[in-house]
Design brief:
Elements (H helix, E strand, L loop, with lengths): L12 H6 L4 H13 L3 E4 L11 H17 L3 E4 L3 E4 L3 E3 L3 E4 L3 E4 L9 E3 L2 E7 L5 E6 L10 E4 L5 E8 L11 E2 L10 E5 L2 E5 L1 E3 L2 E3 L18 E5 L2 E9 L2 E4 L7 E8 L5 E3 L3 E3 L12 E6 L5 E7 L4 E6 L6 E8 L10 E6 L6 E10 L4 E4 L17 E11 L3 E6 L5 E9 L2 E6 L15 E9 L2 E5 L5 E7 L9 E2 L4 E5 L13 E4 L12 E3 L10 E4 L11 E3 L3 E3 L5 E9 L6 E10 L7 E7 L3 E3 L3 E9 L5 E13 L6 E4 L34 E4 L1
Parallel strand pairs: 1-2, 2-5, 3-6, 4-7, 5-21, 6-22, 7-23, 21-24, 22-24, 23-25, 24-26, 25-27, 26-28, 27-29, 28-30, 29-31, 30-32, 31-33, 32-34, 33-35, 34-36, 35-37, 36-38
Antiparallel strand pairs: 8-9, 8-20, 9-19, 10-18, 10-20, 11-17, 12-16, 13-14, 13-17, 15-16, 18-19, 39-44, 39-51, 40-42, 41-50, 42-49, 43-49, 44-48, 45-46, 45-47, 45-49, 50-51
Length: 687
């Protein structure tokens, strides 16, 4: 099976913290894949036939799968034709290679047509440790590269959490909460470092409470202490020694004698077969999927799905490093019931790579990244992160919401395609279920989409995301695109016939806290200092002088001892790489710059992380009166950030206020200069 294993995403502080990836693991798996000689097992040899009942075909495909497992892996094939079947489980190192084959559910009801196998053992792990000990069931089936989910070891769930109404001591078994939205009737909660299980609720009070559950210690907790669902820990196995699994990330809470689930490795469905969910006209009473991939890793998928019910194809529960090269979905989900999606990533999927996803027919959502359920499912909920989609084409005739929809997804990339829908094109929002806000959608990038929709081309209500280089086609669209503050939207047509918006990435703010006092003659350099509509300041390294941001064309009177202070504020939006910058101020005795007040003074290099705004300042002390006045240049310099630039766009507008002569130039007087509009600077810093 030819498989492409994606490299880990570009390093960033968030990525380093959340996704510790062992390069040796990826290299080893690639070597294994290239060296494998997989056997072939035909389902027809076990009784599969287009004229057989669905039970006979199910058992035949399952028997071929099992034979491949016994052989250490292999390909399952079948002669071309339509086979009724459902309830087939796909195991590790087994690939269904089925060109010309259709697997069709007989009735569209549970179970799914194909599901990757999910297995559970018992284990324990200590908070802060990456070593998990399997204590019951053994490690058979777990290998390096396997994805695991350790019950209650992932800390507190962002969305389904509450607060204690009153303080409790270590022996209290009556726990009153301020809110129980999203909490199941029974379950496991975490408060501080203590796990608590309960068997019922009376209003907002937990009943049947067990303190210090799963090896933790009962303790006192203050009123208003956060208490919520104990999340599962999703991780990748990077080493195995005996019954000890070493994971790529540490446990966030201690958990003893808990379930550890693991999924398949290097399974897949290829050959572009058709999987027909055969959904009932008004949907099924229980959720059904044509293909469900759960906690699986390193798989490959190339297939067509029609008539999926709640979903055509779902990657769920921590699936990672999978590759889809051609996935076509038609008439999947039930838009009339606002239910389902043609293609899902659900609950903690990360670092998957998909190319050429096509959705046609009708669908409530076309491609959906979703982190949660209304009521928790034993802590499985989690954002989907660092996934990449190359070319998504959606053309649906029926839809009730955004056809490309991200809810609490983080650092995912959507690179091009065309979205056609009677409703909304792109939607990016935060979790709205449960009693807490949930982990927000941040760092997602949507680029190079053509949008033809009936209502709104895009709605980005979460902050810290990027939408750029998108075109809105002429259509019956009635609302412009919307983006909440804190997002970066540029080179996008907000509505048909409207010119693209200009860039707005890193903002360079020259606002009241960082103003340049002026009474005349400030100038912003045009592009690269050579003219043009926009000012461009190229950033090199700390040893290089480059274009100033602004300079004054008329000397400023400066009295004895009055410093020349330059300060700017720079904002790095959430979801963008951190930068390290310093302000620079240069002072000259007159307009011809023949004599310097001082050489350039560079302020301290300051790291600005995503979501932060910091003020950069540099000061030239002036010890004598300058009767001619002084000319000042203000620059920014970067540390290890070659190739970045400040772009002032649109063309600069200078807002000038006068101050009393002799007051001098500093950052605290009433006069001000802004780049762009006051309180709404359009200046940007691109990586």
């Amino acid at each position: 099976m030819p498989t492409i294993i994606p490299a880990p995403p570009t390093a960033s502080s968030e990525n380093a913290a959340r996704t510790q990836f062992d390069e040796a693991v990826r290299t080893r798996l690639n070597e294994e894949l290239s060296a494998e000689a997989l056997g072939v097992f035909s389902a027809a040899d076990y009784g599969a036939d287009p004229s057989a009942t669905w039970q006979v075909n199910r058992d035949a495909f399952q028997a071929a799968n099992n034979a491949a497992v016994s052989a250490g892996g292999g390909r399952v094939t079948a002669p071309a034709g339509v086979y009724l079947a459902k309830g087939i489980f796909l195991d590790s190192r087994v690939v269904f290679d089925l060109p010309g084959v259709t697997l069709q559910s007989p009735d569209g009801l549970v179970p799914n047509v194909i599901t990757t196998r999910l297995t559970s053992r018992t284990a324990w792990v200590a908070k802060g440790s990456r070593d998990v000990t399997v204590t019951a069931g053994g490690i058979a089936g777990i290998e390096i590269g396997s994805r695991v989910a350790v019950f209650a070891a992932g800390g507190i769930l962002d969305s389904q959490q509450s607060l204690l109404s009153t303080a409790v001591d270590a022996s209290s078994t009556v726990l009153a909460l301020t809110n129980v939205t999203g909490l199941s009737v029974t379950g496991t909660l975490i408060i501080d470092d203590e796990l608590i299980s309960y068997t019922g609720r009376s209003g907002s009070t937990l009943t049947g409470v067990t303190r210090g559950a799963y090896g933790t210690t009962a303790a006192s907790h203050t009123a208003t202490a956060p208490i919520g669902i104990a999340r599962r820990l999703y991780a990748t196995v990077v080493a195995i020694s005996g019954d000890v699994l070493t994971l790529d990330r540490p446990a966030l809470s201690t958990a003893t004698d808990v379930a550890i689930a693991f999924g398949t490795v290097k399974s897949g469905i290829i050959g572009f077969p058709t999987i027909d969910g055969n959904k009932p006209i008004n949907g099924a009473p229980s959720s059904v999927y044509a293909v469900l991939v759960q906690l699986a890793a390193w798989g490959e998928y190339d297939l067509r799905i029609v008539n999926g019910e709640t979903g055509g194809m779902m990657f769920s529960r921590g699936s990672a490093y999978n590759f889809g090269r051609r996935i076509h979905l038609h008439d999947s989900s039930v838009p009339a019931a606002s239910k389902g999606s043609a293609f899902w990533l659900y609950q903690g999927c990360e670092q998957n790579h998909f190319e050429n996803i096509t959705v046609t027919g009708h669908s409530w959502v076309g491609v959906y990244l979703d982190d949660r359920t209304s009521i928790n499912e034993e802590g499985w909920d989690a954002p989907n992160s660092y996934n990449t989609f190359v070319t998504i084409n959606i053309d649906v005739t029926q839809s009730a919401t955004g056809v490309l929809n991200v809810v609490s997804g983080r650092y995912n990339r959507f690179l091009g395609g065309r979205l056609k829908s009677p409703k909304i094109g792109i939607n990016c929002s935060n979790n709205s279920q449960g009693s807490a806000a949930g982990q927000g959608s941040v760092g997602n990038e949507f680029t190079s989409y053509t949008l033809n929709v009936g209502e709104t081309p895009y709605t980005i209500s979460a902050s810290g995301n990027l939408l750029h280089d998108c075109f809105v086609e002429a259509s019956h669209q009635s609302f412009p695109g919307t983006a909440a503050p804190g997002n970066t939207v540029y080179a996008v047509s907000p509505a048909p016939g409207v010119a693209p918006l200009m860039a707005a990435a890193y903002r360079l703010n020259m606002l009241p806290k960082s103003r340049l006092d002026t009474w005349d003659g400030w100038t912003i350099l045009p592009a690269a200092g050579t003219g043009g509509p926009n000012g461009v300041i190229d950033l090199s390294d700390t040893a290089t002088t480059f274009n100033p941001i602004v300079y004054n064309t008329t000397p400023i009177p400066v009295g004895p001892g009055v410093p020349l202070t330059a300060s700017v504020e720079v904002t790095v939006p959430a979801g963008y790489p951190a930068v390290s910058l310093a302000a620079v101020v240069l002072g000259y005795r007159n307009i011809s710059s023949t004599a310097a007040v001082t050489n350039s003074v560079v302020g301290p290099i300051t790291a600005i992380n995503p979501g932060e705004t910091k003020r950069l300042t540099a000061v030239i002390p002036v010890t004598a009166a300058l009767t001619e006045g002084a000319r000042v240049q203000i620059q920014l310099r970067s540390a290890a950030a070659t190739g970045r630039r400040i772009i002032v766009s649109p063309a600069p507008v200078l807002e000038k206020n006068t101050t009393q002569p002799g007051q001098g130039f500093n950052g605290d007087t009433a006069g001000a200069l802004w780049v762009g509009e006051p309180d709404n600077s359009a200046s940007v810093l691109f990586a």
